[in-house]
Amino acid sequence: MVYGPHRSLVNLTLFALAKTTNPDFEWVEIGSPKDDRSPCEPVPLGWIPEDRLWLVDRPDELLPDDLSANLSLTRTIRSDEPAEILAQITEFLRLPDRSQQILATRPPNGKPGVVAVANAFRVERNFAASRVPSILTVHRNAGFSVLVGYSEAAGPGREVFDFVFHLDGDGQNIEDWRKNHLVCERGITSGPLRDSRPVLLEDIPILSGVLSRAVPARTSRTPSG
Questions:
Q1: What whole-number distance in Å separates Cα of residue 173 and Cα of residue 32?
Q2: Which sequence spans correspond to the domains of the chain?
């Protein structure tokens, strides 16, 4: 999970982490077409190929469907299946169609798959936090990692993620990204980010490279006399 108050900065950081993990990642963008989007975000910049871009304008499209799973079990699962396999198949069938389609894709480079979910705060009211662990397990069993961008204060749900990063700092505008820090609150125990140490974004190559490309540099003007 990546969270912080600045949505564009969160989404660009999410993009950088996903691309570093696997360049053939899947990008799920939650939000209505009418929502204001900064031109500096990955989708407006054209950085997400159409065949790996999943636009979700209704949060309920990502909700598990328990009824669908119950109706399908009698046709797809043998009575002698082990309980562990039964649970995995059941949770997969509960996923909405769009999530099942994403998990059906396999990266051609042999690396684990990556699903990056932008603007996850928009599904919080529709989504029971108790369902998150089982959904993450389904993705993990399918060979995928789930990266989530949350542009608000993260709640207790962040405890289910292996890695939690907080974007913190003085930059109120995307142009001021160099004033912001990345803090690893969970998951890293060595290196510069250990022990929740804040590190300037410009000192993290995989982030500074993406942010420098996304955000136009400010030019200083010398007053004429």
A1: 23
A2: 2-214
